[in-house]
User: What shape does this take?
Amino acid sequence: MGKSPDEMMAAILRNLPAKTGRDAGAWTALIKAEGPAEPKACARWLKQAYGLGGATAQVLAAHALGGVHDLSPEQRLDKLYQGRETLRPIGNRLTALALGLGADVTSTVLSTMVSFSAGLKFAEAKPAGKGRIDLGLALGREPLPPGAVSLSPVKTADPSDRITYRIPLASVDDITEEVADWLARAHARVATRD
Assistant: This one.
């Protein structure tokens, strides 16, 4: 089974001395002394000035400057739904459905979404403004049969993006049995890959 984003970040920090010759403390001191104070700008600076990979640079910037990953999962949820509290029940219902698909399912609260994985990411619940959550699903790139729910292809510039379809959800009532079935299908696609 794959690692959660939190486990991956911990592994990146743990492996810094072997990969870069500096531990997290030394990188933090350097960032605070010489780097930009904004995490995205800092990550760009680390990549340009020190040749670090994108993931390593982002993790170091967040670690040194404090970011969403320094918060507990509950604090991350609070931040994710800040100003759009009416969407939280939708997200909570989607999380319950995803976790109910099997013991292999994990959920991770990120800065812009809740991600669901079973070794590989199979879905995400992403607030889209204040009016809805987009349920993103990893259903492959082939066209899907029409259904009663509004299942639309995701337009992305990155063909490696796992999320290929989305369903907009404006209320808990929009989470029908058909929506739950599509979520289960996305889970089944990654669960059968092993």
Summary: The beta strands are 106-109, 114-118, 120-128, 132-137, 152-153, 165-169. The chain has a mean pLDDT of 85. Helices lie at 5-14, 16-20, 24-34, 39-50, 54-65, 73-80, 88-99, 177-191.
